[in-house]
Amino acid sequence: MGFQKLSLKGRALRLLAQREHSRSELQAKLARYVQEGEDLAAILDELQAKDFINEGRVAESVVNRRAARLGTQRVLQELRRKGLDEELVRAAGRQLAGSELERARAVWRQRFGAAAETPAERARQMRFLAARGFAADVVRRVVRGAGEDDEGMETGGWE
């Protein structure tokens, strides 16, 4: 019993069964498997028409998986890398902006748990949060412990 070679559509469906993929991700992953006579664009159009490929679900999936550990900048960078529409990326940014301070505090607490004793340690903590894509003003507030009870803080620079 030999295994049949998977069709292009079969490969696409297998990828989509594992997680949500954007059209551009699927195009990049499947391009090397295109054989003469196959039309990748037509297959992707069909999958998109049947709502197997849905950019809104891709964005929602990324936000749900990554936002708890990453700042708005990093999440938006990942959405852009997936080739999503810029308006969809901006909408995700607006959604994430309101919770950035809380999320940064949670990440900081999990990693460090205690205030920095030295300026070098404070700088290390700030670099850690900045590398995860949190806005500079949020990083400063979390590490210095300022505004523990502030809600609805404005974050800048994520669009």
Protein model, in words:
With 159 residues, the protein is mainly α. It has helices at 8-18, 23-30, 40-49, 55-66, 72-81, 86-97, 100-111, 119-131, 136-144. Helix 2 runs antiparallel to helix 3 (40-49) and helix 8 (119-131) crosses helix 9 (136-144). The radius of gyration is 20 Å and the shape is elongated. The termini are far apart.
Radius of gyration: 20 Å
The overall pLDDT, averaged over residues, is 88
SSE string, helix = H, strand = E?
Answer: HHHHHHHHH
Largest sheet: none
Please count the helical segments.
9
Helical/strand content category:
mainly alpha
Question: Outline of this structure?
Answer:
The chain is 61% helix and 0% strand.
